[in-house]
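For the sake of transparency, this paper describes our internal protein records without simplification. The record that follows is passed on verbatim for readers who wish to inspect the format:
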Amino acid sequence: MKRAYRYRFCPTDAQAAELSRTFGCVRKVYNMALAARTEAWVTRQERVNYNATSAMLTAWKKTEELAYLNEVSSVPLQQALRHLQTAFTHFFGRRAKHPRFKSRKKSRRSAEYTTSAFRFRDGALTLAKMAEPLAVVWSRPLPEGVSPSTVTVSQDAAGRWFVSLLCDDPGVKSLPARGNAVGIDAGLEHLLALSTGEKITNPRHERRDRAALAREQRRLAKKEKGSANRARARLKV
């Protein structure tokens, strides 16, 4: 299991400029890839995947207009395309709305770096394209022996800088492997239906049914014994 550790940091002027350029390039690549995928789907009903957008990014970098994309680390740009792929997977799976374009003013300013794009050694974190490590405010130490697998740098609306380090949680042990697996399907009549045939009732529906039963039982108790009304009330119970 992964756990994120978030810290404040104070970039130098050069680091702040580099990160601001990276944020802008991440937003530009995400929006261009989103436009290309949307156009392909609307006009041709074609699903463009991550590999196709990665090839587009390579081509964009070779143009004079977008040559500045080469000035920043390529990893945050590729990660933006991966996040877009995840967004479309959720969209086509009807688990989320269609991805939206990132706004320069409203969208979160962030960039994600994987292990090939940063160095973490002796408590010092250095990102790609940077000569010096970030001045991180280590408000709490990382667990002993833990190293980040992903680093996300962001800046909030107030101008504060944050770095989030995604690490394996040493306090969580992996469960032993099981030889059998059970499929789970969410439904309308039941909360969950298992491949074993077992059905899990929705607690909300169960409470509603119990309340309805109690109400009909009270009505039955008030009916005169032997009457037609009592017979009809008994059928409802």
Q: What stands out?
A: Residues 13-44 form the longest helix (32 residues). The longest strand covers residues 2-9. The chain is about 40% helix and 20% strand.
